[in-house]
Design brief:
It is a single chain. This protein is mainly α and 86 residues long. The two termini are 20 Å apart. The radius of gyration is 19 Å and the shape is elongated. The protein is built from 2 helices and no strands. 31% of the residues lie in helices and 0% in strands. The longest helix has 16 residues. Helix 1 packs antiparallel against helix 2.
C-alpha cells in the first residue's frame, strides 16, 4: 500500500536551510519569507498517492481542456484518453 504524497513544511519560524543558488553562489531565498523551500517540499493541490500522481494530473488536465472547449479538434482523442484512465 502506498502512502499519500505529503509535503514537509518547516516548523513555524524556522524556514528551510537546504542549499540553493541565487546566481551569486549563495542560497536562494524567497523575498516573501526569506527562506528556501528546497528540502521542505511544497504542499500539493491534490493529495494523491505518489504512484498515482501522474494519472491524477493527466486526468485533471484533460478534464480542464474539455471543459474549456468540448468541441476542440483533439476532443475525441482526449475523451479516449480519459476513458483509458478508467
Amino acid at each position: 500500500m502506498s502512502r499519500p504524497a505529503v509535503a514537509r513544511t518547516p516548523a513555524s519560524g524556522t524556514g528551510c536551510t537546504a542549499p540553493g543558488t541565487d546566481g551569486a553562489g549563495g542560497p536562494a531565498r524567497t523575498a516573501a519569507s526569506g527562506t528556501n523551500w528546497e528540502g521542505c517540499g511544497v504542499a500539493p493541490d491534490v493529495a494523491t498517492p505518489a504512484d498515482r500522481a501522474r494519472d491524477v494530473a493527466y486526468r485533471r488536465n484533460l478534464e480542464a481542456l474539455l471543459a474549456a472547449d468540448p468541441d476542440r479538434p483533439a476532443a475525441a482523442e482526449q475523451r479516449t484518453a480519459l476513458a483509458a484512465l478508467g
